[in-house]
Structure formats: structure tokens, C-alpha cells
Amino acid sequence: MKDQRLRQRLAERHAAHLYRRPRMAEGPSTPHRVVDGRPVLSFCSNDYLGLASHPQVIAAFKQGAEQYGVGSGAAHLVNGHTRAHQALEEELADFVGRERALLFSTGYMANLGVIGALVGRGDAVFEDRLNHASLLDGGLLSGARFKRYPHADANALAGLLAESGAGERLVVTDGVFSMDGDLAPLPALATLAHQHDAWLMVDDAHGLGVLGARGRGTVEHFGLGAMEVPVLMGTLGKALGTAGAFVAGDADLIEWLIQAARPYIYTTAMPAALAEATRASLHLVDEEPWRREHLRTLITRFRAGAEQLGLRLMPSDTPIQPILVGDAGEALGLSQRLWDAGIQVTAIRPPTVPQGTARLRVTFSAAHSLQDLDILLTALCKFRNLWHSSPSGGEPCKSIE
Ligand SMILES: *Cc1c(COP(=O)(O)O)cnc(C)c1O
């Protein structure tokens, strides 16, 4: 019977330690909060700048709700597109230095929308193996030939592009990879895309607001512009602390997306109040650069401290700081130990990451204090002997900084 088969599938997930369930949090997404009924210190939010509960963002949201109500009532192309949406699109375009920008209700939808609008049957899409699920899904759904290249391997991509006889060609990459925290080799990808007359699309969900001297993201970090990266996607739910996403590019690209991107056309516009809140966030990225600087300090100190403890870090210079554990069961056990000690750090296991590379994924936010960091390092020190791959005999515990 179909009910039994479904129950069987759930049981299999359980048995394989792959069962997932959401924990329930109280209050805003801040480092210190109550989760599943107990106070914890969290290192797993993408609210990198701590803007999700910033008073100015909340005030703009409230004011937006007063002015526009809650629901937008319709899709952008019907009558859901307000002055607030228009202003945010213009400010986002300015922010990233592109002619135009277009709002989407989520990053997932933006990715499905852009890829599907740019390529289809007879075309080809080239994706980094470690791209975000929404980019992979977008590539598969588009109907274009789907080619994956090894992680960050521009040479492999060059080979694939050279042998491709497809019509339109689209190269798609994360700017910052969400499970590793490393950066795509954007200058090399941009050169290749240019040589082969292919589109280059960068999903900068984790770079926007965080990287680059002015927080413009991975593209700014590498000193690239609209010529090199013609299709730039960013999300609003991470460093900007709100929700939704946008795609930025030249006027023709945006006009084409309005005509052809189905997740833009066939969905209700985000609430105008959310657009107002996001405008406040954008201003704060410029007005409170200390948030980015403090994040830098946390990252640098964490890496120094973790290396002192003999932990295996990954080559990441971003707020995503995975600690390699290897075995999935061990990673889960460590995450549980930390949880028992009142610290929330997610264990990431296959199939999200390759076999044998299970890890603890630590993310930092400007809302973390240096004391929060010390608490984490002290706990990691205490538990490091529990994992076999950890070299024993590092420094003795405590006295971190
Ligand atoms: C979070 C994320 C998305 C999805 O964005 P949402 O707005 O949460 O749907 C897309 N791409 C990357 C790389 C992400 O990290």
C-alpha cells in the first residue's frame, strides 16, 4: 500500500542517520536565543551582518506595512509592483553597479527563473559540482544540456566549453560556496565565458554584504564588473537580513527576464513592507561598516584559535568556517555534544557534501561577541579529543586568547 511504502521510506532515512527535522526557535535570529525550549549560543545563521533584527530594519518594515498593508495582492505584472518595489530595484542596481535589477520572492525562484529564461533545449548549462541545489535544479529544469565541472576547476570548464556545440551557453557558479566557504575562481571563469561567448551567472547569496571593501560581494572582491559578470544574482535573506532575492544586469537582460522568467511572472510579489525593510538594510551596509570589520576579526581569531587546537579547517576566508571531521556519525556526535553544552553548530553530512568529508559548519555573524567566540573555542577544545582524525597533543585547553 502506498502509505506503508512512504512509512518504509521514512524508516530508511532514520536508519541511515539522514532524517531531518526543524528545531523550533523563539525570538529573532540572534546568536543567543531559545531553541527547542533551551537557551543556546548559535553558530548557524546566515544573518552575517546581524541586520535581521536591526531596529531600523524593523522600523522600516512596520512603516511599510502601515503604508502598503501586508500582502502585495498580485504578481508584479498584474498590480503587485509598488513604488517600494521599484525603489528597491533601483537601489539594488545602484548598490551592485548594474543598469537594472529585478526582484524575486526567493533566491531559489530567482535561480530557476534566470537559468530557464536564458537557456533551453538545444543550449547548454555548465555548473560547478558544488553549486547550490537551486542552481542545479534550475539547470536540470531548463531542458538545456547539463554539464557539471569539478569544483572550482576552470581548466575542466575550458575543455567542456571547447567541445560544446550548443546554441546559448551559460556558465553558472556560486560566488561563495555554501558548504565550504571558499570562492569561485571568478576571474578565470569570466575569461573563459568571454572567450566562448557564453553567459556567466554568479549566485552571490553568501558574498553580498560581506565581501569586498564596500560589501558588494565576491565580484567586488575580485575587482570585476558588469562586463565580466553579466548576470549577478543575490539574496536578501542572508547578510541583508530580510527575505527575497534579485537579479542584476543590463537593461536587455532584465527586460528579457520580465518576459520569460516564469518564477517572476507566476508568483505574488513580495510584500512591499519587505522591500522597505530591505532598503533600510542596504543603507546599513554602507552606514555601519564596523559590522563587516567585526566579522573579519571574528573570522581571523577563530581560524587562529582553531588551528592552535589542531582542528582541520578549510581554505575559507568568509563567515562560513567548516571544521572537517570526516565520518558522518562522528560529525553528528560532535554536533550533539556541543548542543548538550548549549552551543548550536550544524553537522553537514553526505549527500550534501562528498563521502568522508562530513563537517561541522560554523557560521559567524557581526552579532557574535568576542566572548561568544571564546565560548565556542573552549567547547571545541574540550571535545576535540573525541574525534579520531584530530591530531592529539595540540595546546592544552583554555587560555584561548
Ligand atoms: C540560500 C541560497 C539560495 C536560496 O535563497 P533563498 O532566498 O533562501 O531561497 C540560493 N543560492 C545560494 C548559494 C544560497 O546560499
Account of the protein in words:
It is a single chain. The protein has helices at residues 2-15, 55-68, 76-80, 83-96, 107-118, 133-142, 154-163, 186-195, 218-221, 251-260, 262-265, 272-287, 290-308, 328-340, 370-383; strands spanning 32-35, 38-42, 100-104, 124-128, 145-149, 169-174, 199-203, 231-235, 245-249, 320-326, 343-344, 346-348, 358-363. The chain is globular. Helix 2 (55-68) packs antiparallel against helix 12 (272-287), helix 7 runs parallel beside helix 8 (186-195) and helix 13 (290-308) packs parallel to helix 15. It is α/β, with parallel strands linked by helices and 401 residues long. The strands form three sheets. It has a seven-stranded mixed β-sheet with strand order 3-9-8-7-6-4-5, sandwiched between helices. Strands 1-2-11 form a three-stranded mixed β-sheet. The protein binds pyridoxal-5'-phosphate. Pyridoxal-5'-phosphate is lined by residues 106-108, 111, 132, 134, 174, 178, 203, 205-206, 235, 237, 245.
